[in-house]
Specification:
Radius of gyration of chain C: 21 Å
Helix content of chain C: 25-40%
Shape of chain C: globular
Largest interface: A-B, 43 and 36 residues
Oligomer: heterotrimer
Largest sheet of chain A: none
Strand content of chain A: under 5%
Chains: A mainly alpha (315), B mainly alpha (305), C alpha/beta (341)
Largest sheet of chain C: 8 strands, mixed
Order of helices and strands of chain C: EEEHEEHEHHHHHEHEHEEHHEE
Distance between the termini of chain A: 7 Å
Strand content of chain C: 15-25%
Number of strands of chain C: 12
Structural class of chain C: alpha/beta
Distance between the termini of chain C: 19 Å
Number of helices of chain C: 11
Order of helices and strands of chain A: HHHHHHHHHHHHH
Strand order of the largest sheet of chain C: 6-7-8-3-9-10-12-11
Helix content of chain A: over 70%
Shape of chain A: globular
């Protein structure tokens, strides 16, 4: 396990390095003068000189790159151009919100989608195609519903019409009821975005497992059908389902950008989009690096889950 | 073509059928294929949904519709009616008209992304397989790097740097799809290269370009057509997301995403502004997925089960 | 004669069993009217080519035929209780407790993500209400009984860590866990090496004797049958075409198909023939049954009647055969080296 983690850590270095370099180049690839781009066309000469100096843009490219890497190695992501706060601090404030929303959505989507997929597979294996077909057509449609659109519709119904759930307001973890009510809609929207694909993968995996010989063995030994399905079949289908969990979380991260924006949650997505609009490049860079780190961490976690899911997998 | 790479398993859904060297390659569904295509209910339903959307979008300039951008304040925030099928927005503009004009932008982006991703993917994928190990590992390194990132974030990053606009949005979305297309093309090509008819062609010392043009490309077109359909669907969704954030197509040009973004402020007073373009997105994306499903079954006899 | 039910009545009584597979091309009659009785402790071998319906028959006894197959007629009585009339819930109490099964491929018949202990303990907990500790102790005992060395270590192993023969022994232990009165073994040795095959059959034979357990042994290998079974049923196109005590069947087969099967067994001792005899032609198409005897197209003794009338089982020699021609008149030389010594 430790050797695996070490090896895996080494493997992610090129990825991280690539992203770090891309992020560095991002600002330098801009057509024209980045300082003008950041400060705006009407900025005075003095402002521009200052900005170039602050960003190190008056140095040779290679020097800039080395300085940038050096700072990064010390965990220094620079300061926000809009409010002067340290990017690390901004990141620390935004990360937990996104992780909580994404995590809850992941759990919710799996709680719904995995049983659905398993039941669809079961009915399909018994030749009752109608229910299976209906579930899969629904999954196809649900899969194409844009999350931000669904968010608006849910907001319309649950917040504006029924007044049941808040769509804005503070996030206060010390008041669990209000906290979860505040997160209910964003979590639901994100969960729905994953349910279809998770259900579909679960169905395929379970259907495959249901044809395995050891399922026949289990039945022949008097295992009740629910236990065959949820004990044996689902347990053995765990590997592809775990893989999908990893991918799902990645897509959820992408989805949080929109969802946080709509529900005014101050998570990574909101910070990123606001920084893009404010041309606050240190913050944009910091957020993209953070997304990458979370991504790598999720991939490692998925691999570790593999070993739990299947004793044949060795890391 | 040197064989430095171990052949990998072609991706599932790969529509490749071994056939003798001298037989004509069939890159597109033949007549029989077309009938089979129509027989699949999925593809038929998909085509029936998509066709009117495409036709309306194409005909938008000649249709008897009110001006797409001319404000008509007296008419502001009208609910759907016989005069305004989808109602009107805050400026009194007809939503039905805007959705149809929006279709032009959204479909243009969807199909452009699919075309760019598939063509670039086939070209780079083939080069990667043909030019030897060094090129291949370099290409796959970049591919893996790009794939290690959620595609929406990649697109957001791109438009953050290069700004909003139709071209930028197309490139931004295609950047996330090209690596997927490269990977698919590469695995298909490696799979086909291992087949006997390619060996046979090589035995008659056919040049590499001949093998590629004659044997490998025709046999991968089918599978690429299937993914193109799903790329188009995803691109429509991605455009909507970008435009919704204000990072994609900016007003006054209507796109499905920015109409919804516009309507967001008037959710309580004019639900229809958001509702109808959203339905258009769902319909277009569903029809493209159904089309892909039908294509997959038509082009890959093995998927029949 | 083993064919007679014992005084207490038969353990298993199958009457006119029909299993159909609803395929896209039509209805395949995989089992087409099979009847037999099995006495307690009796060993019946069901022999046939692949596609003869022997595996489907064995699965149908416990109601385990998978979609698109369905038992459409007949009865399966275990000690007078009709299993076909039982609810799924009640049937699950019979499966693995009164009647157990072992399957062909030990590689794939064990669940790869569960330990040996978990798999053996499951039926013990379910049927016998054992605690985890009791089940573990019993599992250890069972592993010893089926001849697995260092059983304590094997308990915590996963199937992929065991050899094929070992896995078949584990499957056997699972099947025997609750002391069933009937074991259905569906080609239990086919996937194994020849030496391991012999060991498993010997083990099965030994255990059946000690536990006074009846066995239905489904196989295509007549060589194994000779060493194991009291009685043989030869299956063709979903029906029994001949049943007889093992010795009688080997000495004087009464159906041309049985003859063909016996002639195709390679002799282990004695002079090797230049080539093995084969039964010409392919197995019958179950989707398009012939009006007459299904074996007629491949038969070398057929008469005119064979193409129009389907023969039923009748008394012949030491057992029964379904053939219009009485083979007692024709000469048959049994294969050397396979008959019971």
């Amino acid at each position: 396990m430790t050797t695996y983690l070490r090896r895996r850590g080494l493997q992610t270095i090129p990825t991280l390095f690539g992203i770090v370099t891309l992020v560095f180049l991002m600002l330098r690839m801009l057509p024209g003068d980045p300082a003008v781009f950041i400060a705006g066309e009407n900025a005075g000469q003095e402002v521009l000189v200052n900005l170039r100096h602050n960003l190190g843009l008056d140095q040779p490219m290679l020097v800039q790159y080395v300085t940038y890497l050096g700072r990064l190695a010390q965990g220094n992501l620079g300061q926000s151009l809009t409010n002067g706060k340290s990017v690390v601090g901004i990141v620390q404030g935004a990360l937990p919100i996104t992780l909580v929303v994404g995590g809850l959505a992941l759990v919710l989507s799996f709680l719904v989608a995995v049983p659905l997929g398993a039941v669809a597979a079961f009915t399909a294996s018994r030749g009752h195609g109608a229910l299976d077909h209906a579930l899969m057509v629904t999954a196809l449609v649900v899969d194409t519903i844009p999350g931000f659109w669904l968010a608006l519709l849910l907001m319309l119904v649950f917040t504006l019409q029924l007044g049941l759930l808040p769509a804005t307001g503070p996030l206060d973890p010390t008041n669990p009821a209000a906290f979860f009510a505040r997160l209910a809609l964003p979590v639901a929207v994100l969960a729905v975005s994953q349910i279809a694909s998770v259900a579909r993968i679960t169905r395929t995996a379970v259907l495959e497992v249901l044809h395995e010989d050891y399922i026949r063995t289990a039945r022949a030994l008097g295992t009740p059908e629910w236990s065959v399905l949820f004990g044996h079949a689902l347990r053995n289908a765990a590997l592809p389902v775990v893989t999908i969990a990893g991918l799902s979380f990645g897509r959820l991260l992408g989805g949080t950008v929109l969802t946080e924006n709509i529900f005014a949650l101050p998570g990574m997505g909101t910070v990123l989009v606001n920084a893009i609009f404010a041309r606050d490049y240190p913050v944009v860079q910091g957020m993209i690096l953070l997304y990458t780190l979370v991504f790598v961490a999720v991939n490692v976690a998925t691999d570790l889950l593999y070993t739990r899911a299947d004793p044949r997998v060795q890391l | 073509m040197e064989s430095t790479l171990s052949p990998s398993i072609p991706a599932a859904g790969a529509a490749v059928v071994a056939r003798p060297v001298l037989a004509l390659p069939v890159p597109l569904p033949s007549f029989g294929g077309l009938r089979k295509f129509a027989e699949r209910r999925a593809s038929l339903v998909g085509a029936l949904i998509l066709a009117p959307i495409v036709l309306l979008a194409l005909a938008a300039p000649v249709l008897p519709l009110p001006d797409v951008n001319a404000p008509n304040i007296l008419n502001a925030l009208q609910a759907p009616s016989a005069d305004h099928f989808f109602g009107t927005d805050k400026l009194g503009r007809d939503i039905f008209t805007r959705v149809i004009w929006g279709a032009r932008v959204s479909l243009l982006i969807g199909f452009s992304v699919a075309a760019i991703a598939v063509i670039a993917g086939m070209a780079i994928g083939m080069l990667s397989v043909t030019l030897g190990r060094a090129v291949d590992s370099a290409v796959m390194g970049v591919v893996d790097l790009l794939l290690s990132f959620p595609s929406l974030l990649l697109a957001i990053g791109f438009v953050a740097v290069f700004g909003a606009g139709v071209t930028q949005v197309i490139v931004a979305i295609a950047i996330a799809d090209i690596p997927r297309a490269i990977r698919l093309q590469r695995s298909l090509a490696l799979g086909i290269r291992g087949r006997s008819y390619v060996d046979a062609a090589r035995m008659f010392s056919a040049p590499t370009w001949w093998i590629i043009v004659r044997h490998i490309l025709p046999n991968t077109v089918a599978a690429m057509l299937v993914v193109a359909s799903t790329y188009a669907a995803n691109a429509i969704l991605a455009e909507a997301a970008l435009s919704f954030l204000g990072l994609g197509i900016t007003p006054p040009t209507p796109s499905w995403g920015n109409i919804i973004s516009d309507g967001r402020k008037y959710l309580q007073d004019g639900w229809w502004i958001c509702a109808f373009p959203g339905m258009a997105i769902v319909l277009a994306a569903v029809s493209l997925h159904l089309l892909a499903d039908g294509l997959r079954h038509t082009l890959d006899p093995r998927a029949e089960a | 004669m083993a064919i007679l039910p014992s005084r207490r009545g038969p353990l298993l009584s199958v009457r006119d069993l029909h299993v159909h597979f609803m395929t896209k091309r039509g209805v395949a009659r995989a089992v087409d009217g099979v009847s037999f009785d099995l006495a307690p402790g009796e060993r019946l071998a069901i022999v046939g080519e692949s596609g003869s319906g022997k595996s489907v028959l064995s699965m149908s006894l416990l109601g385990l035929v998978a979609h698109p197959g369905r038992v459409v007629g007949g009865s399966v009585e275990l000690e007078g209780r009709d299993l076909r009339a039982l609810s799924e819930r009640d049937l699950n109490r019979v499966r693995g407790r009164d009647v157990a099964m072992v399957f062909q491929d030990p590689m794939s018949s064990l669940n790869p993500v569960l330990t040996v202990e978990a798999q053996i303990a499951a039926p013990l907990k379910r049927h016998m209400g054992m605690s985890s500790t009791a089940a573990r102790a019993r599992a250890l005992e069972l592993l010893e009984q089926v001849g697995i060395p260092a059983p304590a270590q094997r308990l915590v192993a996963y199937p992929h860590q065991l050899s094929g023969g070992m896995r078949q022994r584990v499957l056997l232990a699972m099947a025997l866990a609750c002391g069933p009165r009937l074991l259905i073994a569906d080609e239990p040795t086919t996937a194994l090496d020849v030496t391991v095959q012999a060991q498993i059959v010997a083990l099965l034979s030994d255990l059946a004797q000690r536990m006074h357990m009846a066995v239905i042994f489904v196989t295509h290998d007549l060589g194994l049958v000779a060493r194991f079974a009291d009685r043989v049923a030869v299956m063709y196109a979903g029906r029994f075409v001949e049943t007889a005590p093992t010795a009688g069947l080997f000495a004087a087969p009464q159906h041309p198909y049985t003859r063909g099967l016996l002639a195709s067994i390679p002799a282990i001792t004695g002079a090797r023939p230049d080539r093995l005899a084969q039964i010409a032609g392919a197995p019958p198409d179950l989707l398009a049954p012939l009006p007459g005897c299904p074996f007629e197209p491949r038969c070398d003794v057929g008469v005119a009647r064979c193409t129009v009338d389907r023969p039923a089982l009748e008394r012949r020699g030491s057992g029964e055969a379904a053939c219009w021609v009485d083979l007692a008149a024709t000469k048959f030389t049994p294969a050397v080296g396979v008959a019971r010594v």
